[in-house]
Amino acid sequence: MFNIILFGPPGSGKGTQSENLIRKYELKHLSTGDLLRSEIANQTPLGIEAKNFMDKGQLVPDEVVIGMISTALETNPQVQGFLFDGFPRTDAQAEALDKLLQLKKTSIAVMLALDVSEDELIKRLLNRGLSSGRSDDINETVIRSRIHEYENKTKPVADYYAKFGKVVHINGEGSVDEIFNALCGEIDRRKYIDIVS
Ligand code: B4P
Predict the structure, then answer these.
(1) Distance from Cα 99 to the centre of ligand 1, integer Å
(2) What are the Cα distances from residue 140, in Å, to 7, 15, 58, 155, 165?
(3) pLDDT tens string 140-194
(4) Active-site residue identified among 56, 128, 144, 166
C-alpha cells in the first residue's frame, strides 16, 4: 500500500488536488471534511454535533473524526493506498492514524504540505463561498478562525511527520496544473524508491 497525507491550511487546494491525484494513482480518497459534510446533509447525530463546531470555524473533536476514519479504513480493505485529505489535523489524530495503519501492516509514505499565504487563502475561500453553499466559507471571521485553528493545532502535525523525514513542502500558489505536476513529481520519486527497496 502507498499512503499519502495531503496537508495544508484551509483553502490551500487539498480537495482540489485530491480529485486529480486519486484518479492518477488509483488511491482511495478519505476527506474528513467531505465525510463530515455528508453526515450533516443526512442529519445524523454525528453531523448535528459536528455542524456546531464547523460553523464556528473550529475543529471537530478528535474522537469523532478518528472514529470516522477507523470505520472508513475497515470498510476499504482491498485498496492500493489511501489519500488522506484534511486528516490528521491534531497530534492525537496523527498518533491514532499511525496505530490504525500499523494494524493494517502499513504506514504513511509521505506528507505533501501545500504552502499558501494567508491573503490568498482568504481570497480563495470567500470566492468559493459565493457558490459552494458552505456556511464556513461565507464569513471572513469564521475563515480567520479556521486559519487560527490550523496555526495552533494543525501545523504542529507536520513536525510529528518531519521527525520521520516524511514531510515535503510544495508551493501551493500557481495554476492547479503546475501544483499537480509538482505533487506528482514527489509521489513518483517515492513510489520508485518504494518499488526498488
Ligand atoms: P475541509 O473540508 O478539509 O476543507 P478546507 O480545509 O476548507 O479546504 P481545502 O483545502 O480542501 O479546499 P481547497 O483548497 O481545495 O475542512 C472543513 C472543516 O471540517 C474544518 O474547518 C473543520 O471544522 C472540519 N474538519 C475536517 N477535517 C477535520 C479533522 N480531521 N479534525 C477536526 N475537524 C475537521 O479549495 C478552496 C478553494 O480554492 C476552492 O474554491 C478552489 O477552487 C480554490 N483553489 C484551489 N486550488 C487553487 C489554485 N491553485 N489557485 C486558485 N484557487 C485555487
Answers:
(1) 25
(2) 22, 20, 14, 21, 35
(3) 999 999 999 999 999 999 999 999 999 999 999 999 999 999 999 999 998 866 6
(4) 128
Whether the CB of 193 sits within 6 Å of ligand 1 = no
**pLDDT tens, 39-63?**
999 999 999 999 999 999 999 999 9
- Alpha-carbon distance of 179 to 167, in angstroms, equals 16
**Domains of the chain by start residue, with CATH:** 3-27+79-196 (3.40.50.300)
Residue 14 appears among annotated catalytic residues: yes
Q: What DSSP designation does 163 have?
A: T
CA of 120 to the centre of ligand 1 (A): 13
What percent of the chain stands above pLDDT 90?
Answer: 92
Q: Report yes or no: 8 and 121 within 8 Å, Cβ to Cβ.
A: no
Average pLDDT, the chain: 94
Catalytic-labelled residue, pool 37, 56, 134, 166:
134
